[in-house]
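Weekly sync notes, structure subgroup
Attendees: PM, AL, DS (notes)

Item 1: joint prediction request from the bench team. They want all two components modeled as one assembly rather than separately. Inputs as received:
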Amino acid sequence: MGFRHGTIVRNEGHGTIFYRMEVALPEPVQFVPGQFAMLSGWPGNDPLLPRPFAIYRAASAGGRHSVEFVYKVVGRGTALLSGLHGGDPVSVTLPLGRGFDLSGEGRTWWLVGGGVGFSTVFPAADSLGHRKGGFELFLGGRTRDQLPPKDWTPGGHTAGRLHLCTDDGTAGFHGTVVDAIRERMKGMGVSDLARVTILACGPRPMLKGLAELAAGAGVAMQASLENHMACGFGVCWGCVAAIRDGEATAYRRVCKEGPVFNAMEVVW
Amino acid sequence: MVRDMTPDLSVTLGGGLTIKNPVMTASGTFGYGLEFAPFYDISRLGCLIVKGLSREPVLGNPPQRIFETASGMLNAIGLQNIGVERFVRDVVPRLEDAGATFAANIYGKTPEDYEAVAERVSEVSSLAAIEVNASCPNVKEGGIAFGSSPDGIARLVERVRRKTGKPLWVKLSPNVTDVGSIAKAAEDAGADAVTLINTLIGMAVDHRTRRPVLANVTGGLSGPAIKPVALRMVWDVCRKVKIPVIGIGGIMNAEDALQFLLVGASAVQIGTANFSNPRAAVEVVEGIESFLREEKIASVADYRGTLRLS
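Output from the run, pasted for the record:
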């Protein structure tokens, strides 16, 4: 983990609501899918705090190192970031937090991204893509315009592997990813369901719905949570989430003990 | 000879304590110190002050706990901490290994709690000082009950003073009518230094949901937004007490830190800046040293309190 000064290589909107930023860094980045970075790129003290983003990709070639982020403009910080250009300086602290646990052998992996949440699960798809059995991908958006661009989607659009879901039915399955997964579970036996691990990132109502569904079906689930953060590395204690601790509830830091939690332990 | 001099950054803080430079990190913004070891050598700080310690571990407030504001942020963490025992057992040896100079910020619900925590941390021979939190705005009994009147602060400081031989600092709230009289009361009760300011009480609401943003409804405002308020209060208190004043409030860089020294602070604490830039505090150390070198000022002591009013 470190605090680095980087330079924007490119920062582009892609005809969608999503932006993709590549930042050149002095050192290579190694990360676990689901880990994140704190990023800022504006002068002065307003906004004051860096913003958290999932690490989307990291690359090193010919002595050049870079890291990529995907984001959606949701407020002032991301609006300012979207206005930056190649050559502009940014500072990043990374890699942060605890990512997805991909260690299970013989698991059936269902990756679920709601909205810009795909940026957290695509790196997991890259890791799992090499394994026998691979993964299935469930991507949800309100409309087709809010799904990730096709050419970003890991594994392309292999039939049977990709489940696009839109709330308005303009693309793929007409309904939420929770509805789509409920459909997917139909006809599966207890032992098959017990081999499934869901890795999910998205709006909290989506995660909550998925966690309830998974719990009822005996499916394991890791949820990547979001929260307002000040530091991103565990010192401000501002980003906590309520997590079950035996009989009690503890406040765990999303930036440190998370952002990925066992969904069965989250107090939704 | 003068051109190549290395400025003397050391400062004397009363109670027999001299630290290597005037830059401290503020309680509640620096974890237990070790979290910053990946970013720089934490032994380079004048002193780091760990997150407020209580007798027993504390759960803290429910989320949402923080909210960014114009050039600042609100927080209502609620003093979540691991408790004094785990601090002494698990954290202190690692701070010692890191060569860090460190102080313990302590708080309690009752004077007895403060006494107990003060006694326990006083057993740590490597502990540089105790900072009594008499000013947390986010917990009803987080010290503000004692810190909002001269009598209250005097009673608390007298009792803690009897329990420790360590240098004793008292962290003061700006949410009072006359911070000077409270600082004076702390001095008279035996404090070796006063730290100010803690956060200003603030609030944020959502006009659509019609709800407060923070679960605690109100929170403490920190960051550059509060710097002018802090600077005025530090300047004021420096003229009212003889003990050293530790200035804090919105310091983001060396220039800000020098301004607090200029109005009379003996040392400064870096708080919210640690969140924006994890290297902020060590950059302030470097910046103060280069300023003194450039200006050919021999020491921090020579610069401190030299504000020109005419």
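Discussion: Chain B has one domain: 11-62+79-200+222-303.
Action: AL to compare against the crosslinking data before next sync.
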